[in-house]
Amino acid sequence: MIVKVKLFATLRKYMPNIELGKASEIPIEPGTSISLFYQILGIPEEEVKLAYVNGIYCESDTILKEGDEIGIFPPIGGGCY
User: Fold this and answer.
1) Which of 12, 15, 27, 38 could form a disulfide with 43 if both were Cys (CB 3.0 to 4.6 A apart)?
2) Would 78 be classed as within a structural domain?
3) For residue 26, what are the contacts with CB-CB under 8 A and spacing of at least 6?
């Protein structure tokens, strides 16, 4: 089955050939969880702050389905006091 993924900020280094703002289609096996998906992409889970599936925040045990769109974000800091 195929899902689409967008990596944000520092996580983009794991898929450097994707054009900024574009999603990439990734083939996965049925029953793949978000946590396993990180492994497939080569992303250490500790580098992920949150992920969403179809625009909704999800936990790492969420099972992905055909056509899901996943966004993965690292911890992000910044701003000033």
Assistant:
1) 38
2) no
3) 2, 3, 4, 5, 37, 40, 41
